[in-house]
Every structure is written in C-alpha cells, then in structure tokens.
Amino acid sequence: MKRYPDAIRILVAIDCIIMGFDGTAIKLLLIKRNFEPEKGNWSLMGGFLHQNEDLEAGAERILFDLTGLNNIFVEHITTAGKIDRDPVERTISVVFFALININNQDQEALNAHNAQWLSLEEKPELIFDHDEMVTKAIEYLRYKAALHPLGFELLPEKFTIPQLQKLYEAIYDMKLDRRNFSRKILSTGLLVDTGEKYEQSATKKATLYQLNQDRYKDKFFAFWHFMPHPGID
Amino acid sequence: MKRYPDAIRILVAIDCIIMGFDGTAIKLLLIKRNFEPEKGNWSLMGGFLHQNEDLEAGAERILFDLTGLNNIFVEHITTAGKIDRDPVERTISVVFFALININNQDQEALNAHNAQWLSLEEKPELIFDHDEMVTKAIEYLRYKAALHPLGFELLPEKFTIPQLQKLYEAIYDMKLDRRNFSRKILSTGLLVDTGEKYEQSATKKATLYQLNQDRYKDKFFAFWHFMPHPGID
DNA sequence: TTTAATTGTGTCAATATTACACGATTTTTA
DNA sequence: TAAAAATCGTGTAATATTGACACAATTAAA
C-alpha cells in the first residue's frame, strides 16, 4: 500500500572524505576495498544508509567504524546522483566532509578496513565518482578555511603558530608571510597562550597555544579573511 | 538479483527554493498543494526523481514545470534525510536553490500549480521540513552574496545601481551607504553603462547598467566582499 | 663559541574602508 | 513659474587594514 506508487526507490549511500594534517601535508584517509565490487581498488570510506538512521547519524557511524572516534567535525557537502555512478544499481550518495586530528584515531580499526593516510599528491585513482567528491571537498576546505577558523580541527589541542601557518600553507599550496600571518591570527583573539613551549622544536621553541573555545564557537560563523587577498582583480 | 541485498531503497524527492526580488523585498515562490498529502497547505515546489534523470536535471524539470523558464541559476544546497520527515514513507529530499527574475515567468504555469510569490515576512508555515530548507537557503544566499556577484540573477537584464543596492539591503535586512555601495560595485568592473536611463524613476533618472558577462563568468568564484564589515569582532 | 635555523615583535608605506557633503536632475507643488 | 522635495552621481578626509620588510632572541648542532 504505497502512497507514491509511481516514484522510484533507490539506494542511499553515505561517503566520507576524511582529512588530516601530518605537519606538512593534507592527507586523506582512504580504504583499499576488501569487498566487491571494485575489490582491491581505492575508495572513500562509505556505506549504505540504515533503516532507522538519519543521514548525519549514518556519517557518524561510518566515521566511528573506521577511526574509533566520536565528536568529529563533520559537514554534509554535496550529494552525488548521476544515473550510472554506481554500475551495480542506481545509488545516490550523500557526501560528508570530516576533519580529524591525524594522531588520534584507532590503528586497529584502520587496519581492519585496509585504510591508509595518503597525501593529495599520492592519491590514487578512486572508484566510481569518488575523485569528483574529493575535488569538491578540497574546494570546500579552501573556501571555508579562508573565512572561518576551520583549520584547528586538524591540529592537536595544543599547537604553535608556525604549525598553524604550515597547515594553511598546505591547504592553499602557497607560502605565507610569517609576521603577517601571526598578526592576523593573534588579532582574532582565538588563541590562548598556554605558557608552554613546543619541546620537540630543533631550534627556538615556539609558544604552544590552544583555542579559546567560547570565542571559537561564537565566532565560527562570522566572516573573516584568514587568507591574504592581494590585488583582487 | 540485487547486488546489495541488505541495503534499503527509499524515495528521492527534489525540492526547490525559488527566490525572486520585486524591487523591495526578497520573495519566495511557493505552492498551495492541490494534491495529497497535505492538500491545501503551503509547500516548496518539488517532485520525485525520475528513473533516468540526474539530480540537476530533475531540479531543472521541476523549475521549468512551474515557471516555464530554462537556464535558471540553480545550485544544490543541502539534502534532508530525517527518518520521519515525510509521514507517508521514508523519503530523502535533495534541495536546490534557484534565483530568477520575478518578471519573467509564465503566469499560466504558476496558476496551474497554485503558485504565489510571498515575501519572507508573509511566508506561511510550510509542510514537512520545508521551513528548515528555507532557513538554510536564506543563510546560503546571505553567505554567498557577500562574496560573489550573485544578486544579478534576481534583477532584469538592465538595472540601476540604486536597484542593486535595494536588493542587497533586502538580502541583509540592513541599510547601506549609497556612496560606498556605488564605489564598491563600480570598482569590480562588472557593470557596463548602457547609456540609457531608467525612465520610470520619479525624480532624477538613474543610469541603467548591464552585466559584463565575460567578467561575470571569470570572476564569479573569486573572493570578494560585497558587504561592509565594520569592526569584525 | 660560532653557525644555522627558527621564533617573536616592530615599522612603514600603500591600499581599502568608512563616514560624510555637495551639486545636479527631475517631478511635484505652491 | 518658481520653489520644494526626492533621488542620483561624485568627491574627500580620517581611519583601519594590509603587505612588505628588518632585527633581535632562542636553541641545537657544528
């Protein structure tokens, strides 16, 4: 007794682009599939939506499955629905974007899924339309990180300004001026000096900061320009 | 012979938030449903995804159905998937955002669908989760219009700077300084003086401009600040 | 103890932004 | 017929932000 008898019903997948930062490069958490179809090929982590599950919840389930992490930064970024995107059966994929601290996740879970962190340069070709999704995610990261203090999700709780700068340089694949970057970041009032120094430094030890959480939440959606914008033309 | 036998298959709807500008206020094109369920109640224009149809194509079909227009500015903004969002049967809705020139559409098609332009203040309560979708669309418009020359989609081909300013004032519900707005817009090089004047003006006739199409396409995705940002803090 | 690498802070000139004033044009009104 | 009212176009000065750049301080290694 279906109420919408003429409409089609199709599979709903959830795919997650999971990004991390290793201090030098932005990395993607990808899996080498140990199941059909496309067994042995690289793919985003994903799965099908469950019966009694919201989309967000599905994304969180999939992320927890792979990383053992909860409370991850996750946002829905796009939905892929090309007719033949899955060769087996028509499937729509709801795509989520996740940022995590690369050091936190559960290595055993990663192994069980054949997962590996690969930098954007190392990225192999992915199955289906997953490459397009990654492209969108990178665009999204660049777009959003220029305006919102997003990058902190990729760093440890305590971090130095030079680390943060290297992160932005990795995101935008460009060099930034140390002095101007520092001034801009500090002027946001988002950072709190912990009084500690980064001990692993080879030379002068940089100050460790942490986020002013209240201010971070308050100001996340305010417009900001974290990136220089020379000669807009 | 299904390859993914355990996964669920559900309905995929497409819903469109259609915005226009009447010279004073941002308006939504809404329909009073003449079909069940929720017959007689206000709703976004939508429909179900067809068998051999991509998502974008579905959105364009639905928009054409209602307005008689092609080549509309359309973007996918979000996907709604709460378990009970449709009381009849589980349905995921892929939401699109469309901007059109309010004077262009086909009045007969509007009548056939019971459609009406309503300002945001007049907006009645909508069915299902359509109110949430509208909220997201307004946020999206404000976000995007601050950075990209988006507003032109809502104006006639030839328009005056004061008209454009009123549009921005409607989007952000705030007053802007005439002089500064004019300077900023003109400095983008996006406008071309047509040499004509807006004849319907009650007093001094304003210059009619049109978009520099090449520059518009080139620069659409560049970052710009179209809105003032006094004392970011 | 010198060297090399890196961090923290400061300055200055160029640019962009904001706030604000005035003259010009056109219709309405006295 | 002229003054008034409304709106449009442009200009300017004070302020804030940005980009480019210099120098001193810290630390491990040479």
Summarize the entry for a quick read.
Two copies of one chain form a homodimer. With 233 residues, chain A is of the alpha+beta class.
Features:
233 residues, DNA-binding, 6 helices, seven-stranded mixed β-sheet, three-stranded antiparallel β-sheet, 2 domains, elongated, homodimer, alpha+beta, Nucleoside Triphosphate Pyrophosphohydrolase, Arc Repressor Mutant, subunit A
Structure characterization notes:
2 copies of one chain form a homodimer. In chain A, the strands form 2 sheets. In chain A, strands 1, 2, 3, 4, 5, 6 and 7 form a 7-stranded mixed β-sheet that branches. In chain A, strands 8-10-9 form a 3-stranded antiparallel β-sheet. With 233 residues, chain A is α+β, with helices and mostly antiparallel strands. The mean pLDDT of chain A is 93. Helix content of chain A is 27%, strand content 27%. The radius of gyration of chain A is 20 Å and the shape is elongated. Chain A is built from 6 helices and 10 strands; from the N terminus they run ββββαββαβαβααββα. Chain A folds into 2 domains: 11-145, Nucleoside Triphosphate Pyrophosphohydrolase (Alpha-Beta Complex), CATH 3.90.79; 151-219, Arc Repressor Mutant, subunit A (Orthogonal Bundle), CATH 1.10.10. Chain A binds chain B through residues 2-4, 6-12, 37, 48-55, 76, 78-79, 81-83, 88-89, 92, 94, 146-147, 189, 222-225, 229, 232-233, and chain B through 2-4, 6-12, 37, 48-55, 76, 78-79, 81-83, 88-89, 92, 94, 146-147, 189, 222-225, 227, 229, 232-233. Chain A binds a DNA duplex (30 and 30 nucleotides) through helix 5.
